[in-house]
Amino acid sequence: MKGEAVAVAGASGTIGRAVVRECVARGFEVIALVRHASDRDVPELAGARVQTVNLADPTDVALALAETNADVVISCIASRSGSPKDALKVDYEANCHLLRAGEGAGVQHFILLSAICVQKPKLAFQRAKLGFETELRTSRIAHTIIRPTAFFKSLSGQVERVRAGKPFFLFGDGELTACKPISDGDLARFIANQVGNEKAYGAILPIGGPGPAITLKRQGELLFEAAGLEPKFRSVPVGVFRLFAAIFSLGAWASDWLAEKAEYARIARYYATESMLVLDPVTGQYCAEATPEFGEDQLIDHYRAILADPPK
Ligand SMILES: NC(=O)c1ccc[n+]([C@@H]2O[C@H](COP(=O)([O-])OP(=O)(O)OC[C@H]3O[C@@H](n4cnc5c(N)ncnc54)[C@H](OP(=O)(O)O)[C@@H]3O)[C@@H](O)[C@H]2O)c1
């Protein structure tokens, strides 16, 4: 598929950057769609044509996409805050503008980076993502929806705590949830594999990284092993998130700020209690064996790489 013209939206984000780099390495003609002109200097975008676009403006998106002559659009855009308003604006509306512009510009394939958690939607950002998935599935452009499990970066929030000799926080006993974490590079390779892959047209592809599913407790053990330290854990009851959500919800009707805080508490509770694995529709249980895997990168090597750098 060398020579394919691929427009990557959200090219400045974590996965967007990795996708641009992978697509450039494969010899695709890559157009990196970004919102800030300063993103031209992002090193991972080297080899791509960087084009600014205002994704909130359908006319601007249509003009930008028509200019690209893209055969394929890969959307890696996502709300950075996860707040209900921003999720609607970005995960739903901006993606709709991209889709409509793609239809007008003769794009043949739209690849969407979604998330595995939309299979059990309880949060505003998940409903926004699902809303766009529905638009995509009824559009006339061939499409592929990719729903990854947790990214390495999402499992790295406690690296500095552990390096500083502090205990690793667990929710409950640390065995409430599990995931099959995937690196940015492996996910980018998986996404790039779908370019020109007609077998993936119309598909929803859940995807995890290699190896067995790991619990939060296992993440902690891997992190202590990478740091060469004895594991020590501290348990936090998941009920605290429900309590915060309830307290913030009391004033949510009068304050957007409180409504957002309530949603963030619900997001935290969701990730503390729901696994990032394929959900069996019959049993209603998460199933590691049913979650496809791809790639080679291991979480412990990611931890070792971060720990090799000086503390932040
Ligand atoms: N984190 C996880 O473990 C995980 C797991 C599964 C799925 N996912 C999903 O993977 C996707 C990508 O994640 P990521 O970590 O790569 O995201 P990210 O680093 O936060 O990148 C988000 C991208 O969207 C762009 N964007 C946000 N708001 C925008 C706006 N108003 N207008 C234009 N562009 C906007 C950002 O541009 P700027 O750089 O200009 O802000 C950036 O390019 C998300 O849909 C996420 O839900 C994440």
| Order of helix and strand elements from N to C terminus | EHEEHEHEHEHEEHEEHEHHEEH
Would you report the number of β strands? 13
Shape: globular
- CATH level-4 homologous superfamily of the domain at 5-152 and 182-207: NAD(P)-binding Rossmann-like Domain
Task: Flag low-confidence runs.
Answer: none
Structural class, by secondary structure, is alpha/beta
How many helices? Answer: 10
Layout of strands and helices, then pairs:
Blueprint: E1 5-9, H1 14-25, E2 29-34, E3 49-52, H2 58-68, E4 72-75, H3 84-105, E5 109-113, H4 124-137, E6 142-148, H5 159-163, E7 168-171, E8 178-179, H6 184-193, E9 203-207, E10 214-215, H7 216-227, E11 233-236, H8 239-250, H9 256-273, E12 278-279, E13 286-287, H10 299-308
Parallel strand pairs: 1-2, 1-4, 2-3, 4-5, 5-6, 6-9, 7-11
Antiparallel strand pairs: 8-10, 12-13
Helix pairs in contact: 1-6, 2-3, 3-4, 7-10, 8-9
Name the descriptors.
312 residues, alpha/beta, Rossmann fold, seven-stranded parallel β-sheet, two-stranded parallel sheet, 10 helices, 13 strands, 40% helix, binds NADP nicotinamide-adenine-dinucleotide phosphate
